Amino acid sequence: MVASPKGSDAVPEASDHSFPPADAGAELNSGQHENFAVDPISADVAPFKEEAKVAKKTKEQQKKDAMHTLKSAIIISGIVAALAGAVFAITKKLKEK
Question: What range defines the domain where residue 60 resides?
Fold first, then answer.
């Protein structure tokens, strides 16, 4: 651990880039503190809403594509089973003659 040249009890000099002092009462009773500063850059969540909409549409489209694929597979399987049944029925009739 490296000690500062001013000692461990030294208070750093205030500059334009330092944090304002914290209000312990407001931090501990956050339900009572309703007037707080809002960062306008962080408060702009419109791009996030657009991204969420796009993600939701993408998920919905994937779900529709999956349902369409399943539906197609079931229909094709039914057609193949019907054709196989018809082939067996025809071959049975031909063997009986």
Answer: 45-96
The whole-angstrom separation of Cα 25 and Cα 32 is 10
Instruction: Give CA–CA dist 90/84, Å, rounded.
Output: 10
pLDDT tens per residue, range 30-65: 666 566 666 666 555 556 677 778 888 888 888 899
- The answer to whether residue 62 sits within a structural domain is yes
Say if 91 falls within a structural domain. Answer: yes
20 CB burial (10 A radius; 0-12, 13-18, 19+): exposed
Which residue shows structure tokens 């960062």? 39
